[in-house]
C-alpha cells in the first residue's frame, strides 16, 4: 500500500459519497486546483484504490422488496466443493454478496434480494438446494433496514 496523503484521503471520501461530482467541484472541496486533482484521481484508479464507479439503484422502486440473509452449510469441506458452489452462486443475479464465513454453523453467508417471498422460494428450491454439496440452508429475512452504506471508513489511514 503506497502512502496516501490528506488530499488522497479527501478525494476517496468525496468520491465515495458522490462519484458523479465534477473534477472542478472535487478540486474545490479538497483544496487543490483541477489539474493536480485529476492526476491524483487517475493515480488512485491506477493504484487500485478506486476499483470502479457504479450507480446505486433504489431497489424498492425496482420492486425488489425482500432481502434475505442465507446461511449455507456444505456436506464436505473440499476445495472442489467450494469452487463448484462459488461458481454457481457467482452466476446468480439475486445474490448480492457471498462470503465464506467462520464462527457460525455455516460455511457461507449470502445476501439475497428478490421481489417477494414467491421469488425467494423459487430461488431456494430451484437453485440453492440443487447445488451439489449444499447440506443446509437457513434463511433470515430483513424486516426493516436500519442502516446501510457503501462508504468504507478511512479514519484509520489518517496520520
TrEMBL record:
Q: Which UniProt keywords apply?
A: DNA-binding, Transcription, Transcription regulation
* GO MF term (any one): sequence-specific DNA binding
Q: Which domain of life is it from?
A: Bacteria
Among InterPro entries, the record links this protein to:
ArsR-like_HTH, AsnC-type_HTH_dom, Dimeric_a/b-barrel, Tscrpt_reg_AsnC-like, Tscrpt_reg_AsnC/Lrp_C, Tscrpt_reg_HTH_AsnC-type_CS, WH-like_DNA-bd_sf, WH_DNA-bd_sf
Keyword check for DNA-binding: yes
**Coiled coil location:** none
Protein's recorded name: Lrp/AsnC family transcriptional regulator
**What broad taxonomic lineage does this protein's source fall under?**
Bacteria, Pseudomonadati, Pseudomonadota, Gammaproteobacteria, Pseudomonadales
Its GO CC terms?
Answer: cytosol
Q: Does the keyword Acyltransferase apply?
A: no
One short Pfam family name for this protein?
AsnC_trans_reg
Classification via SUPFAM superfamilies: Dimeric alpha+beta barrel, Winged helix' DNA-binding domain
Q: Where is each HTH asnC-type domain found?
A: 4-65
GO BP annotation list: regulation of DNA-templated transcription; response to amino acid
